[in-house]
Amino acid sequence: MKKIFIKTFGCQMNVYDSARMLAALKMQGYDETTKPIEADIILLNTCHIREKAADKLYSEVGRLNAIKQKRAEEGKSTLIIVAGCVVQATGSELLSRMHGVDIAVGPQNYHLLPELVAKYDRKKGRVLVADFPAESKFDYLPQHDAKGPTAFVAIQEGCDKFCSYCVVPYTRGCEYSRSVREILDEARHLVETGAN
Predict the structure, then answer these.
(1) In the chain, which residue ranges form alpha helices assigned H by DSSP?
(2) Cα separations in angstroms, 174 against 111, 134, 135, 162
(3) What is the Cα–Cα distance from 189 to 196, expressed in whole angstroms?
(4) 7 pairs with which residues across the strands?
(5) CB–CB of 110/8 below 8 Å?
């Protein structure tokens, strides 16, 4: 079975998004590992709110690129994916600064991850997707299972306020609220899979 390692930086929304991305890639035959050296995909879900979180990303990619090279010497391929708000805020600059990154995807495009992985495997070219699609990612991401007694549920995402000190509208997009039915369906599923 193919393996994926996920490291999440930042807020609870990123923890939630990491669970949803994992669910999407599990449908493609990936199983989670806690060891990057075992991973066919290494996914870093990033935060742009604090500069220190972005700085951590650059050093983390350097360490993970060494693992990628070691696995390549053993004949194993490793895909490094950077997801999240740093991608949305920096775009192509991220790819130019981090040569080990194969796919960079912004928060509104997580539902495209299986397609982006397949596209990368076919073309072997670096991929950047950081636009704001008209449709909601929530309509396309599969349910995620609870990993323990607690789990996050997204009620709303983004913001329409554009405060001078805040990056949320630029990284998460316009405010979007999910329907009560969607929220309740997700909460029920999480309880069924182990959340209290």
Answers:
(1) 12-26, 51-73, 85-90, 92-97, 113-123, 168-171, 180-192
(2) 18, 11, 12, 9
(3) 11
(4) 44
(5) no
**Annotated domain spans of the chain:** 2-192
d(Cα 145, Cα 129) in Å, to the nearest integer?
26
Outline where DSSP puts E strands in 121-168: 127-129, 156-157
| Regions in the chain scoring below 50 on pLDDT | none
Query: CA angle, corner 137, sides to 152 and 149, nearest 5?
Result: 15
What is the predicted pLDDT for the residue at 7?
Answer: 96
Distance CA 89, CA 74 (A): 35
Q: What's the fold here for domain 2-192?
A: Rossmann fold (3.40.50)
What is residue 101's predicted lDDT score, i.e. its pLDDT? 94
User: What DSSP string runs through 46-101?
Assistant: E--SSHHHHHHHHHHHHHHHHHHHHHHHTT---EEEEEEHHHHHHTHHHHHH-TT-
Measured distance CA(179)–CA(102) in Å, rounded? 35
Looking at the chain, how many residues does it have?
196
- Both tokens assigned to 181: 């039915």
How far apart, in whole angstroms, are the C-alpha atoms of residue 131 and residue 123? 21
